[in-house]
Amino acid sequence: xxxxxxxxxxxxxxxxxxxxxxxxxxxxxxxxxxxxxxxxxxxxxxxxxxxxxxxxxxxxxxxxxxxxxxxxxxxxxxxxxxxxxxxxxxxxxxxxxxxxxxxxxxxxx
Length: 109
What we know:
This protein has helices at residues 2-24, 34-52, 62-91; strands at residues 95-98, 105-108. With 109 residues, it is mainly alpha-helical. α1 packs antiparallel against α2 and α1 (2-24) packs across α3. It is elongated, with a radius of gyration of 20 Å.
C-alpha cells in the first residue's frame, strides 16, 4: 500500500492540483498545457535515464521502466485529467431555463 501511495497517489494528487491551479488562476490558455508537458518531459527523461543508465547490461529490463516512470506517469496523467474535469465542472457556466409558470427551473447542459 505504501508503494501504491508513493508511485501512484502522490503523482495523482500533485498532477490534479497542478492542472486545477493552472486552469483556474492564469488568464492565458497555454498555461493549461504546462502540467501535461512537464509530466511527459519528466517521464521521458526518467525512462531514457533508466533505459541507458543500467550498469550490468546494455539496456534496462522493461519491467523497471514500466514500474518506475510508467506508474507515476499514469498517476500524473490521470490526476491531470481529473484536475481538468473538476475545473471544468466547477467553473463552466451553467445555462438555466425556465419552462412555464409553476414548474421548477431546469439546468441545461
